[in-house]
Amino acid sequence: MAQVLENEKQLLIGKLDEFDARHSQLEKEISDPAISADSGKIIALSKEQGKLRSLVTKYREYKKIAGDIAESGKILADGSAEAELKEMAGAEIAELGAKCDNLLVELRDILVMADDAGIGSVIMEIRAGTGGEEAALFARDLYNMYVKYAEGKRWSVEVLDFSTTDRGGFREAILGIKGQGVWATLGYESGGHRVQRVPETESQGRVHTSAATVAVLPEPEEVDIQINPSDVIEHVSRAGGPGGQNVNKVSSAIRLEHTPTGITVNMREDKSQHKNRAKAWRILRSRVYEHFQGQKTAERESQRKKMIGSGDRSEKIRTYNFPQNRVTDHRINLSLYTLDKIIAGGMDDLITALRDYDRQQRLKNL
Question: Quick one: fold of 123-220+312-364?
């Protein structure tokens, strides 16, 4: 296990002390009767405390061991101490020192990835790009890949909206995915995905290049972002397209427009206006949250944004080459010749490589 450098250690301990102090402060605030009467405040404070708990618990374990090492060090430095006692103290320092070093490495890795680990729900948007019908079929393949991967992780997947083509491709698919570590894992998927293969529509066996885009947004809870209802304009209309007479006759389609940012969401998937409104608000909260978080962390997270992608249609992050059974992630210059496995949902090797690279970049910027 890699060691924490001395200059890193001082910075790391300083940050951990801040989190430890904040955790203690939260304990006091939660137990304050004046605050406990406010259910909204208690929920927010408890959630913040929950995010810090595992980190602080491990740090307190580290401090205890560091204290025991210091006590053994005093025995070694004591000229009047018996030789046998000094020998025991030396052995304890060696044993506890290794444990202490390993804990510090764990704390460092948890700290640099902590923000991502705490987000357990995302909105994923998959859209066909250039390439016509083949691009829509590729978007469908990406949808199936992510659903199978999520099922393998035992995450819950909810289809919020989708639009299909005549040949069964997807013009657009919007998913809600929930589970432990979902953002820390799927956050790397935002950006442009390119496929090179012989399309089903190609009669002469020529390889074509098509594209699809993926955007993955953390889905905040209502306590994480407050949107003033007066800032949102709602439009209700009839949902055209397939779905029978009810879809076309009843005003069930919802369009939300967040006036401060100009962000809009259209939802017509369900026959129920109420369900469409609830889905539209979930997507709107995610997009507005991402908008403001992006502004707030643009400079601090510039390296990460470059690495994981921003969902920009022009940003190519990965190529799926079917003739060579190859997947290439252009951000980390990694090629894996297991496309058949990856497209079937076996994405672990790819995701692990991205996370390892990301962790190293964050450590460099610590």
Answer: Alpha-Beta Plaits (3.30.70)
Domain ranges of the chain: 6-117, 123-220+312-364, 229-296
Global model pTM greater than 0.90: no
What gap in Å lies between CA 258 and CA 264, rounded to an integer?
Answer: 6
Q: Which CATH class, in words, describes the domain spanning 229-296?
A: alpha beta
pLDDT at 186: 94
Largest CA distance in the chain: 95
How far, in whole angstroms, is CA 280 from its chain's centroid? 21
Q: Which of 188-192, 225-229, 294-298, 353-357 has the lowest average pLDDT? A: 294-298
pLDDT digits (tens, 9 = 90+) for 67-78: 989 888 888 888
Is residue 27 over pLDDT 80? yes
104, burial (CB in 10 Å: exposed 0-12, middle 13-18, buried 19+): buried
Q: At what angle do helices 83-117 and 39-77 cross, to 10 degrees?
A: 150
Task: Give per-residue burial for 16-41: e unless 16+ CB within 10 Å, then b.
Answer: beebbeebeebeebeeeeeeeeeeeb
Tell me which residue of 192, 119, 121 sits closest to 150, measured CA to CA: 121
Name residues whose C-beta falls within 8 Å of residue 152's C-beta, 6 or more positions apart in sequence: 345, 346
Q: Taking the CA atoms of the chain, what radius of gyration do you get in angstroms? A: 26
